[in-house]
# Entry
Amino acid sequence: MAKYVFVTGGVVSALGKGIASASIGQLLKARGLRVVLQKFDPYLNVDPGTMSPYQHGEVFVLDDGAECDLDLGHYERFTDTNLSRINNLTSGVVYETILQRERKGEYLGRTVQVIPHVTDEIKRRLQLPAELDPGIDVVVTEIGGTVGDIESLPFLEAIRQFRLESPVQDTLSVHLTLVPYIAAAGEIKTKPTQHSVRELRSIGIQPDVLICRAEAPMPEDARRKIALFCNVPAENVINAPDARSIYEVPLNFHAQGLDDLICGRLQLAAPPAELEAWRRMVGIILNPPDALRIAVVGKYVGLKDAYKSIIESFIHAGIPNRVHVELEWVDAESLEDRDVGDRRLAEVFAGCDGLLVPGGFGDRGIEGKIIAVRYARERGLPFLGICLGLQVAMIEIGRDLAGLPRANSSEFDPAAEHPVIDLMREQRDLKQMGATMRLGAWPCVLRPGTLAASCYDAPEISERHRHRYEVNNAYRERFEAAGVVFSGLSPDGRLVEMIELPDHPFFLACQFHPELKSRPNRPHPLFTRFVAAAAARLRARNGSAAAAS
Ligand code: GLN
# Structure
């Protein structure tokens, strides 16, 4: 029988509920328990795949092709497990399921209602992971949104019912709140937490554990006050001050006995948490001997959540390289001005030892990205292109090396004279937007002797995709003649998955998203080698600077 932990949040959003849930999962896994994390999102979209990054941040993609909330990325990274589409549920999916049933007449003439039909469906989905895999010890379910939202009520009601129907030792409610510091008064305030818990209790859920987010740890008297007013034992009020690294959060929780508390309350017999390797890893993240800078030329540079997994992948890749990777965010459009010229480019990239062009959609900033790729190619600056980054590299090389001055992607110019990036036939007649891209894990065969093969040290790999457009095979020979090596192909040879340029310190691009599979304890080989190439360039630069002085 699996045990259930529910994580809700109150007062404000963006408290780090996802990190808190992932940290609980990490700690329970470190105690030898089998844990699965899932997220219930109250919005009505079926999945975030159709939402703008400005609305939702990054869309995280799983092996099975599910387009998910970015918190699933944190779950996978913290617990080093691969999740599936059942681990992210939206109100949209709940209603879709119910309405399909209703149209089939499965409700046998009854009125379909929020209670019991919606809540029953939520309860079914709550238990689905453990039903499909009876070996699971703990299911941690995070409820998106903030307690008090109208949208999240059916989810909280389902949890209330589920808790009532389950033995007390089988479920645990964790509530995350904010304890703000009011500078003018010079004190922290517990009232918002009291209100948030009152709200939760009015729905019928008494939290067992409170995780209090604050800038700094709370004084003991504040903790006791929260305990008293919120009806929880003082030791169940956990301090969650801002951490230097998100990977430090499980260690902070552990230091306050949170995993003991959860195991005790759920009557889980588990050995003490094995955290040595994690602690060492966090030590390196917090005290890297060196630092280097990598430019990210993108479109959503004002919104870091749009590149969450890339940011994390660089933190991971810094660990084996013993460096802290600072990211220099460059708005692609700012490079497009015709007067920018080489001098300005040299200024923009002056302190950078690598260039990354991440994924993206739409034509805004494309020419700026092409200019950036050209700069990296010509100056020997290590370059990694991801998805759109590969497509842009193909356009740049097409125009400059392969004699195709009007090379473009048909995404940006449907009438392009040389559509070196184009839609495959399967994508042409699609009318529906949601879940119709090339999504999820696809195998890729690496060409022996290439940089790609040496990074992975394996003949075949599997990586996650999310795109519609592909390299146009009609131009492959021209590119090969221009020096491009197609180092990764689909097993049938029809899809180009990776390209590289041999006469360059590191020029590699992939059609998939390696950042979706990087884990702190298993950094992604492409990021690791890219950062290593940047570190080598920095050393060479420092060496020649030292020699010159
Ligand atoms: N817009 C491009 C496509 O659809 C690239 C997508 C991406 O970078 N994820 O193919």
Observations:
- Residues 359-361, 387-388, 391, 411, 466-469 surround glutamine (CB under 6 Å).
- The domain at 289-543 is CATH 3.40.50.880 (Rossmann fold).
- The chain has a mean pLDDT of 94.
